[in-house]
Amino acid sequence: MFPEGAAPRTSQTRQERIDYGRSVLDAVDGEAGQRVMRALEDVAPVLGEQVLIGFGEIYARPQLSPRDRQLVTLGMLTALGGCEPQLEVHVNAALNVGLTPEEIVEALLHSSAYCGFPRALNATFAAKRVFEERGLLPLGSEAASAQ
Amino acid sequence: MFPEGAAPRTSQTRQERIDYGRSVLDAVDGEAGQRVMRALEDVAPVLGEQVLIGFGEIYARPQLSPRDRQLVTLGMLTALGGCEPQLEVHVNAALNVGLTPEEIVEALLHSSAYCGFPRALNATFAAKRVFEERGLLPLGSEAASAQ
Amino acid sequence: MFPEGAAPRTSQTRQERIDYGRSVLDAVDGEAGQRVMRALEDVAPVLGEQVLIGFGEIYARPQLSPRDRQLVTLGMLTALGGCEPQLEVHVNAALNVGLTPEEIVEALLHSSAYCGFPRALNATFAAKRVFEERGLLPLGSEAASAQ
Amino acid sequence: MFPEGAAPRTSQTRQERIDYGRSVLDAVDGEAGQRVMRALEDVAPVLGEQVLIGFGEIYARPQLSPRDRQLVTLGMLTALGGCEPQLEVHVNAALNVGLTPEEIVEALLHSSAYCGFPRALNATFAAKRVFEERGLLPLGSEAASAQ
Amino acid sequence: MFPEGAAPRTSQTRQERIDYGRSVLDAVDGEAGQRVMRALEDVAPVLGEQVLIGFGEIYARPQLSPRDRQLVTLGMLTALGGCEPQLEVHVNAALNVGLTPEEIVEALLHSSAYCGFPRALNATFAAKRVFEERGLLPLGSEAASAQ
Amino acid sequence: MFPEGAAPRTSQTRQERIDYGRSVLDAVDGEAGQRVMRALEDVAPVLGEQVLIGFGEIYARPQLSPRDRQLVTLGMLTALGGCEPQLEVHVNAALNVGLTPEEIVEALLHSSAYCGFPRALNATFAAKRVFEERGLLPLGSEAASAQ
To answer: Which of A122, C57, C70, D67 could be joined to C94 by an S-S link, Cβ 3.0–4.6 Å?
Structure first.
């Protein structure tokens, strides 16, 4: 899924690493990621670059699939709390890399045992906003049925 | 205060446990709790059920009074941070089970020594929104007087 | 339970406030609190003084009973995480102001719904260490019975 | 992988749900989970029961595989901080449900971008203690190679 | 920079300490701090007083300059998460005591390695709102240049 | 204080960036940082590399002095909680870049207003361990005196 021809993480200039990271960000987060980058432009462009470099250096590593990475990320953002904007970006990303809405909701249900209900509820409502925006509500009967 | 005739936490179907939990939630959280449940319906109904079951299994235990439980809960939600929606629900619940606005404000003042002023301030402003909604402001002179 | 004759929170020197706070700390936390103060002496005595002043200014306020304050505190320290030393001090304090071991354990069970099981487990094991030290284990059958 | 014949989450007594949860816990966490349960016996057996019921009700749901659940869990425990004992249990669980040490280490590397290096380091050293105990160190060259 | 003639932290009445703290708060936080105090008036005036006393007792200590204190504070508020209102107050305070917008943005870039990108982004956008309000955007080319 | 001749953050190979970061880490954290790197070697060497690259890319930026960076870092690690090992590394680093023990203790006293006393106490005791190891205790009378 990541752009061919890139030579990530070997000899390359800072600009090449930023550009590669941007291509990875675009592939994973789409428009939501680009909005964050643009919002940083007039205040902290270097933070934006570091996010891009981080994306390029970590996301493209083959040791974990993009889908697996979003599961870890959903868990982290739910547990951290106060990261609803990032959760929205990553619920979008999760859908983009193949997680179904039902799997996302299930991951947040699962999180309630580890982070408690308040964090799980906040994350679920962030997910709901994304699902709504993408016309995915109501979710199918699998999620609705208790078993 | 909890519904008579229930046989919580012994032999019963999942649906019975959900129904019992709903009656406990209604008694403690009132309309605020029901709004959360309704908001979950089209996205994560099973999370809603787990919240209800948790309410039914834990809140009705006689080892701690409903008033005591809200004191613990206010402490937790203040410390967690980023749980203002849940704080609003539980400030309402705290009033419903007999804590006075002055006691709630005092619990949040107390919290400042353990969580720092920012978390205490955020929680106090969440409480203020609830007090305002219920027409309880300004608080009486006990809270206002330094001693 | 707090020392008579004190005139907390009105005109008094810093040293008087420190001394009054120390008498409150002794009444609430006993030996455990004094150990913390001694450990600060050669590194951060002013932090110790601020803790004492905080105790004197907040704990002695009549708006909330010492028992109520410990319920809030147990909730906060469980939710914060990584505060096991403080939890041990305050489980001791909770016992000193009249909470039973069964009520403390119940507060931590209650916390699991809001903070998740990991935080609740860590707090419960901190409580267990205190109960063990004070010869209170095993807890009576009320706690052991599910209902 | 979960015990056949169980009828999770439908009509059953509390004891049946506890027993089913115990079989799920044994399958996922093995000896590490049983040690936690035993440590709770003389202080908070009901908390142990709630953990078991939670395991039975959530882990066995088919909407997310056991491997997926451990990815979410590793993310959460890393982000929460101060949950090193639980991380050790769940690194064991992660290995039991098919995650390789290299994938676990990669999930924690991934986490550094979201939680920062301190949390990622603490989690990695918790994982290292488990790998050591199970004779898995040093990890193979895939993890060691930067590409 | 703090008001002459005050005798902080020695013999003085509670009211004198509050008044001195208010003068320190005004000097550091300006209008933003006063807004918070006013919002507390009808709900938790004693919490406001404790904030003022804390300001008076800690901020005016000569062991650390006001600029140094804001660096520590920006780090804390970024790491805590969910403290965006306080971050706005303290980005204002940071500018008031001599930190440049470029230094503030750099502190938040620095924080990303310790707290992760989500917390750093939330803090940066809080800073952006303050910079905007004070007509400081876009930041100069030093911040914009990667080197 | 950073190695001359380096051309950080422009065209260079990954290995050059790692090597440069290592020279920055050595200058800031000394032996304590190297111990962490060695501990990662057989389990997560890439995480170690990312830490080094992060150090090289961020610490050497001229927009904030090394002393300023440690003030921000002490604030963050105190607020995060559960980062005592990292606090020890960075108290060492703080001393290495010119902060006095009295300034470090003052920063942690300052933190108590924002993070609460438990986090401030844990951080202070981590600092105490480092001071002890370096033969700096007891601290001079400036810290001990309330004024």
So the answer is: C70
